[in-house]
Amino acid sequence: MPELTPNEWENFLAGYPDAHILQSRAWGDLKSSFGWKPRYVVSGGAGSDQVIGAQILFRMLPFKLSIAYIAKGPVGCGSFLDCHGFTDDLDRLCRQENAVFLVVEPDLWEAEASSNEVASFPSGFEAGFQTIQPRRTLVVDLQGGEEQILARMKQKTRYNIRLAQKKGVTVRMSADIDAFYRLIQLTGERDVFGVHSLEYYQRAYTLFSREDRCVLLMAEFEDEPIAALMAFRHGSRAWYFYGASGNEHRERMPAYLLQWEAMRWARANGCLNYDLWGVPDVDEAELEAGFTSRSDGLWGVYRFKRGFGGELRRAHPAMNRVYKPLLYQFYRWWSPRLSGRQG
C-alpha cells in the first residue's frame, strides 16, 4: 500500500488539475487543525492511467476509534474504488486507524452515474445513512462573455446586481477575517445556523489564499463592511463556501453584487463553472413550488441562489464501508442526537 507524504500527495494531484478542492492537501491541512487526521494512499503503477488515490480524513472517537471519510474522491483511474486493489489498500489503512466505518462521497453527479459503473455500489459498500457535504446544489456556467452569463440569470437578480451598484455598494478583495467573522456571526444569529470559529475561517483563508485559490470579497457602503463571502477555486471549478451579511443596508442588495464579483474572479482565473454549494435536497418541481412560501433550513438560500441561473445538480449518494458492525449500528443511533457542524 503506497502511502504518500503530504508533499507527495500534492505532486500526485498535479496530474489531476480538476480534482475536487476537498481532495487538496490544503483542505487536509485545514481539517487537521480541527480534529481530523489526513492520510494519503495511491494504488496502481506510477505514470499509469490506471493509478488511483485519495486523501482520507480520520475523525478520532473515544476509545481510540475513528471514522474514515473520503470527501469528493477518490482521484484518478477513470473508474472507481475497485481499481488496482484500491479497496484492499483502503481497508488496511482504515483498520490501522481502528475505523468503525468509512464514508465515501464521490466527486460524481447522480445523473452521470447512470452511465458509470459507480451506479451500482462496489462490493462491500452500502448506501450511507447521512451525508457530510450538501447533496444538491446549483452550478453556474461561466462560459461566454459577461453579458451572456448575466443573460442566463433571472431578471430580478440582474436588477439587484445593478441596484447594488447604483445604491453605492462597492466590492473589494480583503484579508480582514475579523470583519468577516463579525458579519457571519450576525448572519448565523439571524438565520439560525451554526458557524465555525474565527480560527477556522482564518486558517482556511491563510492556507488557500497563499496559493491564490481563495478570495475574501467584502461589500462596503460608505467604507462600512455590510456583507462578505469567501470563494475557492481549483482547476476549472470554483465554489462558494461561506457567506455573511450584516443587519444594516440589506435593502442595497450587497449579496447579489458579491456573488457576481466572485463569479468574475473565478472566470478571470480560468474557471468554467461556479458551484453555489447547497440547496434543499428535493427535486426541482418541489423547489419551485415551495421556495416562495418556505424559509426554513436551506429554503431561503435557494430563493436567493436560484436567480443566478445555475443548473440544479445532485451528487452521487454517499457510500459506507463497515468495519465494526455493532459499533456502526450504535453510531447510527447516536449521530442524530449530535449537534453542531460536521463539515
Count of strand segments:
15
Mean pLDDT: 91
Percent strand equals: 25-35%
- In the CATH hierarchy, the architecture of the largest domain is 3-Layer(aba) Sandwich
Order of helices and strands: EHHEEEEHEHEEHHEHHEEEHEHHEEH
Radius of gyration: 21 Å
Number of domains: 2
Distance between the termini: 28 Å
The secondary-structure class comes to alpha+beta
As a percent range, the share of helical residues equals 25-40%
Shape: globular
- Low-confidence blocks of residues: 339-343
CATH class term of the largest domain:
Alpha Beta
The CATH topology of the largest domain is what?
Aminopeptidase
Number of helices: 12
CATH superfamily of the largest domain, called what?
Gcn5-related N-acetyltransferase (GNAT)
Major sheet size, sense and barrel closure: 8 strands, mixed
